[in-house]
Design a protein that fits this description.
231 residues; alpha+beta; 4-stranded antiparallel beta sheet; 10 strands; 21% strand
């Protein structure tokens, strides 16, 4: 296992590193681990015991949950340098979701018992996690309303915009830098795969997007935002 310098760790997790004292940073550094996951590899599973705070350093991760009839619903995508996998530990429960790699990714893992020790010593770190959980709750509330009240076109338009905000675009400034299967895009938008395919085709006909296999280019982002807003 590679031993990282303080500067390297500070670059990976600056917002977590900043509130800590030198002694606390030394403790965190001793328990800072990097792990690489292969494409489609499970990172954690529903019903598992939460043990680590995780932060996505490279690659792409999806959070999903099994629903009625075993249907999988993608409920979140994890942004670069976003923390995840810790809520269940604080709630003193098992994982209620699954996390998997969309593509090969690098994740830092810090044992939650170390995080809890540091929180007990540092109110700044405690406030950091309160803010993180509050932001996540607000996003979850908005996403729940959007996925249940918007029509199919609004849901799909929103999903494309969320993916752009989460993972950005390629050098052309338009093509999403994440290439989802139609099944995954449908799951993320709370619709059937056939509805996702048909709506994507309609968007392409209306010149809102262009499609090349799994690549999706956002041609008219402003109109997409309008479709998302009106639902």
């Amino acid at each position: 296992m590679k031993v990282l310098s303080d500067n390297e760790i500070a670059e990976y997790i600056p917002d977590l590193w900043l509130p800590l004292t030198q002694e606390q940073r030394a403790v965190l550094a001793q328990h800072f681990n990097l792990r690489v996951y292969k494409k489609n590899e499970m990172i954690y599973s529903e019903g598992g015991k939460p043990q680590f705070l995780m932060c996505l350093l490279a690659g792409k991760v999806k959070i999903s949950k099994q629903g009625v009839g075993g249907r999988s619903q993608i409920i979140r995508v994890i942004n670069h340098k976003e923390y995840f996998a810790y809520r269940a530990f604080f709630a003193e429960e098992d994982y209620v979701t699954n996390a998997a790699a969309f593509e090969a990714c690098t994740i830092c893992l810090i044992p939650m018992d170390i995080i809890c020790t540091l929180i007990g010593q540092n109110t700044g770190l405690a406030m950091f996690f309160i803010r993180q959980l509050s932001v996540d709750l607000g996003i979850s509330d908005s996403r729940t309303v959007n996925l249940t009240q918007k029509h199919i076109r609004g849901r799909l338009a929103e999903s494309l915009l969320v993916l752009k905000n989460s993972y950005g675009v390629e050098e052309d400034g338009c093509t999403l830098s994440i290439f989802l299967s139609r099944e995954d895009l449908a799951s993320f938008s709370n619709m059937t795969t056939s509805n996702a395919i048909r709506t994507l085709s309609n968007f392409a006909t209306e010149k809102l997007i262009a499609i090349d296999g799994r690549k999706i280019k956002l041609i008219d982002e402003e109109r997409l935002r309008k479709v998302s807003r009106i639902g």
